[in-house]
Design a protein that fits this description.
Shape: globular
Distance between the termini: 13 Å
Function: May act as a component of the auxin efflux carrier.
Family: Belongs to the auxin efflux carrier (TC 2.A.69.1) family.
CATH topology: Na+/H+ antiporter like fold
Strand content: under 5%
Strand order of the largest sheet: 1-2
Radius of gyration: 22 Å
InterPro entries: Auxin_eff_plant, Auxin_Efflux_Carrier, Mem_transp_PIN-like
GO molecular function: auxin efflux transmembrane transporter activity
Largest sheet: 2 strands, antiparallel
Main location: membrane
Length: 360
């Protein structure tokens, strides 16, 4: 059973995150030492330098030959279930849209495994649980965050190319502004529509952007090194390790600092309002764990491993996904639900742990 001392360890691990967030908020709102323009530059620093190095650093230390692939498969099945349901949402409901599907997927499935998950599950179940959560973090960085980045780039490239094909006077909202107005032919007769870019030109633009974005290959380079190092049993030279660590250690802190800057630029701390915040909490603490329970049972997980899979799915939203949402301008205000989620996550996760313990 988890003790008050274990809960205190989790609180100690989480408290520094809120110090960094508070410093970012105060730098803009109270002390006014950082301007809105500088906030954008800081977010670029986090997105393109500190987070890629942070991802690379923890990925290269994992042992790929000792991974629990059944546990990883359960997580993958749950994410596929959520992705399929969200992809069908715009087709089945007038209130759905693909942009909201992307945001909902991020809120319900991408977790803050390293910062919150590691100390929490270690206190609950021990070192073996910590190792499994780290493994999921690596897979999340390599597969799911890379796919999220691909979707963001696809949306950005599609909107940009469609806008170039449209007339300069087009205006409106996420996809209405990229539709081309009708153009008359030389005889003043029927209307024509400006041509849209081909699928291949769109893919070319997206892959070029991904190739220039360090987030898309930091985890891949890291896991490649991990395979080589664990296969032939050698370590990274200390001079290279130190060069990576000096910036990667700032990754999580700078991400929280950037989130504080974003909060300070909004009129309200929870910029998305109470309704969307509640929606985000339902996705995070109910929909995500429910999908994970289905996936875990489907692949045959039982006992404490099944409980761990459900609990890790209820961890707060990934900070990296918030940084991406802000960088690409897709519902970053809704992603501030991660702030409220981190505040309420501890009692929710302990409640999950107690209930699952009684059920076993």
């Amino acid at each position: 059973m988890i003790s008050w001392g274990d809960i205190y360890k989790v609180v100690v691990a989480m408290a520094p995150l809120y110090v960094a967030l508070g410093l970012g908020y105060g730098s803009v709102r109270w002390w006014r030492i950082i301007t809105p323009e500088q906030c954008e530059a800081i977010n670029r620093l986090v997105s393109c330098i500190t987070l890629p190095l942070f991802t690379f650093e923890f990925t290269l230390h994992v042992d790929p030959f000792a991974m629990n692939y059944r546990f990883i498969s359960a997580d993958a099945v749950s994410k596929v279930i959520v992705a399929v349901l969200l992809a069908a949402w715009p087709k089945c409901s007038s209130k759905g849209s693909y942009c909201w599907s992307v945001t909902s997927f991020s809120l319900s499935t991408l977790t803050n495994s390293l910062v919150v998950g590691v100390p929490l599950v270690s206190a609950m179940y021990g070192r073996w649980a910590q190792d499994l959560v780290v493994q999921l973090s690596v897979v999340q960085a390599i597969v799911w965050l890379t796919l999220l980045l691909f979707v963001f780039e696809l949306r950005k490239a599609g909107c940009g190319l469609f806008s170039m094909a449209a007339a300069p006077s087009s205006a409106g909202g996420e996809l209405a502004s990229v539709e081309s107005p009708p153009l008359k032919d030389v005889d003043g007769g029927g209307a024509e529509v400006a041509p849209r870019p081909s699928f291949w030109s769109l893919m070319k633009t997206v892959w070029l952007k991904l190739a220039l974005n360090p987030n898309s290959y930091a985890s891949i380079v890291g896991i490649t090194w991990a395979f080589i190092a664990n296969r032939w049993h050698f370590e990274m030279p200390s001079i290279m390790e130190g060069s990576v660590l000096i910036m990667s250690k700032a990754g999580t802190g700078m991400a929280m600092f950037s989130m504080g800057l974003f909060m300070a630029l909004q009129e309200k701390i929870l910029a998305c309002g109470p309704s969307l915040t509640a929606f985000g909490m339902v996705l995070k603490f109910i929909a995500g764990p429910a999908a994970t329970a289905i996936g875990a049972i489907a692949v045959g997980l039982r006992g404490d491993v099944l409980h761990l899979a459900i609990i890790q799915a209820a961890l707060p939203q990934s900070i990296t996904s918030f940084i991406f949402a802000r960088e690409y301008g897709l519902h970053a205000d809704v992603s501030t639900a991660v702030i409220f989620g981190m505040l309420v996550s501890l009692p929710v996760l302990v409640a999950y742990y107690v209930v699952l313990g009684f059920m076993s």
